[in-house]
Design brief:
The protein is of the alpha/beta class. The protein has 2 domains: about 180 residues, Rossmann fold, CATH 3.40.50.720; about 140 residues, Orthogonal Bundle (N-(1-d-carboxylethyl)-l-norvaline Dehydrogenase, domain 2), CATH 1.10.1040. About 40% of the residues lie in helices and about 15% in strands. An 8-stranded mixed sheet has the order 5-2-1-6-7-8-11-12, sandwiched between helices. Helix 1 links the parallel strand 1 and strand 2. Helix 3 packs parallel to helix 4 and helix 15 runs antiparallel to helix 16.
C-alpha cells in the first residue's frame, strides 16, 4: 500500500479519458466511492448510453449504479486537473495533443497503463505541442481492474489487482501524484523507482501477442469463440511465453533494474499458484471468462506489438541483449498483418 507523503488534498473531481473496458470500469469505481467523475471518449456512440442516462451499471467485485457527473466526446466539457488516461496506448499521442491546450504544471496525468515508455512519449508529445509547464506525468504497469464492458452503459469488474506498480516520469513527482489521487485508490498501487521499471514490467506484451499469433486459425474461424488464457495458452504456448519473458527480464537487468517474471507477477497480483506460467494461468480465476479476439485487428497485436515488444526489442539492442523470441513474434506479426510495426512503434532509450 502506498502512503500519502505530502500535505495536499486528493482530487475531488477526476477526468477519465477513454470509454472502453478500463475507462468505464474506472469511472464507475471512482463514482461509487463518492468521487465526482467526468468521462470522455473520442467516439460519442461508444458512450451514448452513459451520456443519455448519466449512469454506469457495474457488476462483479464492485457493484452498483454509478452516477457520472458528465460524459462527452468534447474534451473541453469534461477535462479536469486529475486525469486518468484509460485508452489503448496507441491513442496516447493523440490524447496528449488534445490535452495540450489545457495542460499546466499542477495537473496530474496518470497513464493507466503506460505500456512500454508511455510516459516518455506523452511528455515528449506535450512538449512538441508547445506545453512549457508540463503536468506531473505518471504511468502504471497495468490496469487495476480486470474487467469487460458490456452493452450500453454496463460493465463488469471481474477482479481488482493488488500492488500495481506506478512511477512518475520525474521520480520526485510521485508524492504529488499519489497525494492528489483519490484516497481509496492508493491502496491498489505500489511505487516503482522508475518508469523504466513500470515499462519493462508490462506483462501484457508477453501474455497477449504470441498466443493470438499461435492461434490464428481459431481467431479467424467465424463463430468459433475460445478463451484466450484458458484455451489459447496451452503448455507449449506457455513454454514459449516463458522464453519471451526471460528476454524481457534480461533487458531490464541490463538497464540496471530487477523486474519480476510474469509467473511471479501472477502469484503476487492474483494469488495464483503453480510452479510455472501455465499452471499459474490455470489457477487465475479472473482469466476464466476472458475470450480471445475474434479478429487479428485487435489491441493484443495493434497495441502490444508496436508499443510493447518493439520498444522492448529496441531497448535490448541499445544494451546488447539478444532477444530471438521477441524478434520472432514481431517478425510474425509484421508478416501476418503486412505492417511494419518497427516503423510504427515506440523507440526510446
Amino acid at each position: 500500500m502506498v502512503e500519502k507523503t505530502v500535505d495536499i488534498k486528493p482530487a475531488s473531481r477526476v477526468f477519465v479519458c477513454g470509454g472502453g473496458h478500463q475507462g468505464v470500469s474506472m469511472a464507475a469505481h471512482l463514482a461509487l466511492e463518492g468521487v465526482d467523475v467526468t468521462l470522455w471518449n473520442r467516439s460519442q456512440d461508444n458512450i451514448q448510453a452513459v451520456i443519455d442516462t448519466g449512469q454506469i451499471e457495474c457488476t462483479g467485485v464492485i457493484s452498483g449504479v454509478a452516477e457520472i457527473e458528465k460524459a462527452s466526446s468534447d474534451l473541453s466539457e469534461v477535462v479536469s486537473d486529475f486525469v486518468f488516461v484509460a485508452t489503448p496506448s496507441s491513442a496516447h499521442k493523440d490524447i496528449a495533443r488534445l490535452l495540450a491546450p489545457f495542460a499546466h504544471g499542477d495537473m496530474v496525468v496518470v497513464l493507466s497503463p503506460g505500456r512500454t515508455f508511455g510516459a516518455l512519449e506523452f511528455s515528449k508529445t506535450l512538449a512538441e505541442e508547445g506545453v512549457e509547464d508540463l503536468p506531473h506525468i505518471a504511468e502504471t504497469q497495468t490496469i487495476v481492474h480486470t474487467c469487460r464492458r458490456g452493452e450500453g452503459n454496463r460493465t463488469s469488474i471481474l477482479a481488482l489487482k493488488q500492488d500495481v506498480m506506478i512511477a512518475a516520469l520525474e521520480p520526485s513527482d510521485i508524492s504529488y501524484v499519489l497525494a492528489r489521487m483519490p484516497a481509496f485508490l492508493r491502496r491498489y498501487y505500489i511505487e516503482a523507482p522508475s518508469v523504466i521499471v513500470t515499462s519493462l514490467s508490462n506483462v501484457g506484451m508477453v501474455l497477449h501477442c504470441a498466443p493470438v499469433l499461435m492461434n490464428i486459425g481459431w481467431v479467424e474461424t467465424p463463430y468459433v469463440g475460445f478463451k484466450h488464457y484458458y484455451e489459447g495458452i496451452s503448455p507449449s504456448v506457455a513454454r514459449f511465453l516463458e522464453k519471451v519473458d526471460a528476454e524481457r527480464v534480461a533487458v531490464a537487468k541490463a538497464l540496471g533494474y530487477d523486474v519480476e517474471t510474469t509467473t511471479a507477477w501472477l502469484r503476487r497480483t492474483y494469488n495464483s499458484t503453480g510452479s510455472n506460467l501455465y499452471e499459474c494461468i490455470r489457477t487465475t480465476d479472473a482469466y476464466k471468462e476472458i475470450y480471445a479476439p475474434s479478429s487479428l485487428q485487435h489491441r493484443y497485436l495493434l497495441e502490444d506489438v508496436p508499443n510493447g515488444l518493439v520498444p522492448l526489442e529496441y531497448a535490448a539492442t541499445h544494451c546488447g541483449v539478444d532477444t530471438p523470441h521477441i524478434t520472432m513474434v514481431i517478425d510474425l506479426a509484421c508478416a501476418v498483418l503486412d505492417r511494419d510495426f518497427r516503423a510504427e512503434g515506440r523507440k526510446y532509450l
